[in-house]
């Protein structure tokens, strides 16, 4: 029944060979991997304006040079990650690059922050998308957390069904969003050119008395939160159709160009329209309102924006399981993250991501404000480490034109480092938990690694010397009466060895006598040993008995305990049986060094 | 770790022989078994007045004759249940009496309604107690459900610790409550006698124009909800110290006398003071206020009233597990309800009651109004059936003075039957779910019974003819490489039989070749069979292989699958291992007719 439900939800299992068919074309990859980056257009400009407004309306013109600076950083990141794609064609996320060039610890730091960050991506994006919906329909405000959770469940199920199918479903909204924003920008620019906008905005270069370099840097770093998600492509190269590197590089440049154009377009329109951030209406909403009025086009843009924010979460569903797979392959995360599910996705990673992001949404009541700074720090730490790694690589390998590459990465590294430091100094009260949580994650990685290494050492054998050895065997059959189950268990045990003992744990003298007599009559060729129990437990006397057997056979024999278990015809019949055998199994197995043989008895009625 | 926590919560395990020591003395039994009945004083009079007030203030004098009628019914119930105690010294709840005299179906109807009713007792009492607290401290109103749940958890844990200890803790509040109510009544009566009360109340016998017989009967039946809990003593006879019947009968009479005196006292004071039920203050609170003013004594009475309502829930914790035990002994409920826990209580019944009443509290948001009618119907159905059963018994056995007994039970039966019918006709919209839920419970009883009977038939053997038979044996050892675990498994398997096959499920040709070569080098004396899998599952190929073995051995052999399982040093290491072996176990065991032998491998690091 459960398996049928799973089939309905997830779809039929697929062969390993079908994996190639699940690979992404460039256009599909753009949809799957870039929604996180592109969706940041919805709030990037707003973040800059929010900081600048602290210095008064006269300061808003700074948004233009700052946006251009962010654009410059985007260019640096794109060029740098393009270099990374060709240097690491098997998937060059910050984890791989940092580990390769800066050592394991740094790699784990990058990997750990990215893992945490993907969880935050899902939490932030689904909450922000919910915000967009509830802003349009205030009556849904009380159901914020539920809406975000429904979206997370939906995304989890879609991803369990497989990447290819998710892409088909999710590609259109991304294209729609890009189309809608471009229509908005073009219509807005036309309106400005024909003179339809009459805003009294400060001219570029106007002197502002109370602005400081610190404030400008803070605005710049806030604007940089729009660059989260850029790394997704270089992490996911193995998901691309062949030639994977070339396709990934092209996709990265496509994504960078679209993102840059949309971001600068929105920033320019916001400046020309003289738009000021408001608590009740987003900047994009104000631009759309000013351009089209509150008609069909306005609501379409708002709806599509909400949708793209939900899809941004989907980027993490591609990236998290792959990164977890890589960490698991290097034995820093449980092997379970390496298993591909029926539909070829890394199911455990997908489920883990879904559960933990849902938890974050519930804990933070779907409140994005406190999550976003954590999210940005989580991105810029691996950005910095990745570029530092690339710098080391240029210096070590010295390929042709290495000076240019080194320069690009050095500029990128310094910029991202500064942004990280600005985040830490200006927003420490919101991000301090990163500095508690990250060390825990990294210690966890090391502990897991050590355990796997120790286990491998422990299990290794010398095939020349260590060969199987034959020993004696004693089989213990606990019985509760004389039934078909006991008949079957004893038949099985006697087929394996002559050393079979039946054990009965009795509480009541009368019952003990009755059973002993009946056993004698039956005469199954196996000795019955009766243990008297003054507690109601059958486990304790049995354990003592097994200890006696162990002592008598002086560790020369294998001891096997046969435990019959009913296979019932209907699942609910299980409630009526098997409790004590389950307890006995669990206890004996973990406490004593015995083999537990579970003998099925199929009930037919 | 879990077991240490359990020890701390529940206490050390006790020997079966300590059971006698846990038996109840009369005074302790009064505390444990009568809090449900006695606590109804807190609302009995109020229920009557609420109905009468529909006919105006002039009708309140009817509360006196109605209270006397309720008192009469109480007398009838006490006498009747006293007869039951002596007729059924092993515990004569409605279930036993009805089953014995009216047939199994009627018994199950009585038993089922009582079980449901005990769950309702806990839900209603804990909610009503919470109401009393939150009325005194309105700031706690938002935490109603949490407070009720905390009380349920507390009661569950106390009862898991054992009845005796619960009684010691819980006896004092019951005595305090009885003391407090008697102090209140005596002080009130003195105040009335010395002329300190000046209320203009309608004289007894005043003509009331719009009162009907129906309304009087409705008021009477509402008042009868104060009699819930009277049956507890006769159900719990085996819990009494010897001579159990005599002690139980004495306890029953003590309880009846105290309940009757308190009930009529409160009714009289309410009448003399001219008290009218109010939405914001209970009748008892109004009486206490009028007698003592809002001082220490007033708050003490309110607090003790709240406490006694929580303890009323405790009655169900004694009664429910015993009734479930009786039904389980008759094979109408799962055997699990027959198991005594470490502290000699029927742990499963206690936990079941706690979980389901907590569920009801959550579902009804701790709202008593909709639960109380269900609760009353659930009590009066078994009351009626029990007395009908006693009537049949008198007629069948005809002991000395059987005419008197028959008359008592006939009057009681008719009265409770009429009350049940009045409940059904006047409050159908609130109690209809009983008529859906009860049949489901009773069908469940029958299904469970049939399953146990069928199983017993199926397992019965003819000890003269059916003897253990020795057959061949094949042991299948799934391997993933050549490690100490495989060495151990093969050593074990070869110690039992020569028919051992190692099976490797491979996904990758290179790895398969490498393993085959290494196996040859190792030469453990066991053939390695390689299965190629085009899915990632190792279960499917293995199942097909086992089917081949089954077919080859033509069902003459037992097939055993050896599954190694790591016993890790730290519990969290389990996350790192064992997933696939657990899946394999579960699947093979339920789908194929093979013995699963789980071989422990203890990791030391």
Largest interface: A-B, 77 and 78 residues
State the end-to-end distance of chain A: 19 Å
Amount of helix of chain A: 55-70%
Query: Strand sequence of the main sheet of chain A, in spatial order?
Result: 3-2-1-4-5
What's the overall geometry of chain A?
elongated
Task: Tell me what portion of residues of chain A adopts beta-strand conformation.
Answer: 5-15%
What's the Cα radius of gyration of chain A? 32 Å
Oligomer: homodimer
Helix-strand topology string of chain A: HHHHHHHHHHHHHHHHHHEHEHEHEHE
Kindly state the number of beta strands of chain A: 5
Sheet/helix structural class of chain A: alpha/beta
Count of individual helical segments of chain A: 22
Protein name (chains A, B): APC family permease
Subcellular location (chains A, B): Membrane
Organism (chains A, B): Paenibacillus lignilyticus
Keywords (chains A, B): Membrane, Transmembrane, Transmembrane helix
Give a quick precis of the structure:
Chain A is of the alpha/beta class and 605 residues long.
How would you characterize the overall build of this protein?
Chain A is of the alpha/beta class and 605 residues long. Chain A contains 22 helices and five strands. Chain A has a five-stranded parallel β-sheet, sandwiched between helices. The first copy, chain A, is elongated, with a radius of gyration of 32 Å. At the A-B interface, helix 18, helix 19, helix 20, strand 4 and helix 22 of A face helix 18, helix 19, helix 20, strand 4 and helix 22 of B. Strand 5 of chain A pairs antiparallel with strand 5 of chain B. Chains A, B: Keywords: Membrane, Transmembrane, Transmembrane helix. Chains A, B: It is found in: Membrane. Chains A, B: InterPro entries: AA/rel_permease1, APC_K+_Transporter. Chains A, B: Its main location: membrane. Chains A, B: This is APC family permease.
């Amino acid at each position: 029944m459960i398996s049928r439900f799973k089939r309905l939800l997830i779809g039929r299992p697929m062969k390993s060979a079908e994996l190639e068919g699940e690979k992404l074309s460039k256009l599909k990859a753009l949809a799957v991997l870039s929604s996180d980056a592109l969706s940041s257009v919805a709030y990037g400009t707003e973040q800059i304006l929010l900081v600048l407004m602290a210095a008064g309306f006269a300061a808003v013109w700074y948004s233009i040079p700052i946006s251009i600076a962010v654009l410059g950083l985007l260019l640096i990141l794109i060029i740098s990650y393009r270099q990374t794609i060709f240097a690491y064609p098997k998937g060059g996320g910050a984890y791989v690059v940092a580990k390769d060039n800066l050592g394991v610890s740094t790699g784990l730091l990058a990997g750990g922050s990215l893992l945490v960050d993907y969880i935050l991506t899902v939490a932030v994006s689904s909450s922000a998308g919910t915000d967009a919906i509830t802003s349009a329909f205030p009556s849904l405000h009380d159901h914020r957390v539920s809406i975000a959770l429904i979206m997370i469940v939906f995304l989890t199920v879609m991803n369990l069904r497989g990447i290819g199918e998710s892409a088909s479903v999710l590609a259109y909204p991304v294209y729609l969003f890009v189309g809608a924003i471009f229509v908005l920008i073009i219509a807005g620019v036309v309106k400005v050119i024909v003179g339809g906008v009459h805003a009294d905005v400060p001219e570029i270069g106007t002197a502002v008395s109370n602005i400081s370099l610190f404030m400008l840097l803070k605005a710049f770093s806030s604007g940089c939160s729009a660059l989260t998600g850029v790394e997704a492509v270089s992490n996911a190269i193995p998901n691309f159709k062949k030639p994977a590197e070339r396709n990934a590089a092209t996709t990265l440049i496509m994504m960078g160009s679209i993102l840059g154009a949309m971001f600068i377009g929105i920033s320019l329109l916001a400046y020309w329209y003289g738009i000021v951030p408001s608590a009740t209406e987003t900047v994009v909403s104000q631009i759309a309102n000013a351009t089209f009025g509150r008609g069909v086009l306005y609501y379409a843009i708002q709806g599509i924006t909400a949708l793209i924010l939900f899809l941004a979460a989907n980027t993490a569903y591609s990236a998290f399981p792959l990164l977890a797979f890589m960490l698991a392959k290097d034995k820093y995360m449980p092997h379970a993250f390496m298993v591909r599910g029926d539909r070829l996705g890394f199911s455990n990673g997908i489920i883990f991501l879904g559960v933990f992001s849902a938890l974050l949404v519930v804990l933070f009541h779907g409140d994005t404000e406190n999550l976003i700074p954590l999210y940005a720090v989580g991105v810029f730490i691996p950005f910095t480490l990745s570029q530092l790694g690339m710098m080391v690589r240029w210096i070590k390998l010295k390929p042709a034109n290495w000076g240019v590459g080194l320069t690009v990465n050095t500029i990128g590294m310094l910029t991202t480092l500064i942004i990280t430091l600005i985040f830490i100094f200006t927003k420490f009260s919101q991000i301090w938990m990163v500095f508690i949580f990250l060390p825990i994650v990294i210690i966890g990685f090391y502990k897991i690694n050590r355990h796997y290494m120790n286990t491998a050492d422990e299990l290794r054998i010398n095939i020349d010397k260590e060969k199987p050895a034959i020993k004696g065997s004693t089989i213990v059959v606990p019985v509760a009466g004389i039934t078909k189950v006991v008949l079957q268990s004893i038949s099985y045990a006697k087929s394996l060895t002559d050393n079979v003992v039946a054990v009965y744990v009795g509480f009541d003298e009368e019952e003990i006598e009755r059973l002993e007599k009946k056993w004698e009559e039956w005469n199954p060729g196996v000795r019955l040993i009766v243990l008297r129990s003054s507690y109601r437990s059958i486990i304790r006397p049995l354990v003592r008995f097994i200890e006696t057997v162990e002592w008598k056979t002086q560790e020369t024999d294998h001891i096997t305990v046969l435990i019959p278990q009913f296979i019932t015809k209907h699942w609910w019949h299980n409630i009526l049986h098997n409790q004590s055998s389950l307890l006995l199994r669990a206890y004996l197995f973990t406490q004593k060094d015995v083999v537990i043989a579970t003998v099925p008895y199929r009930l037919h009625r």
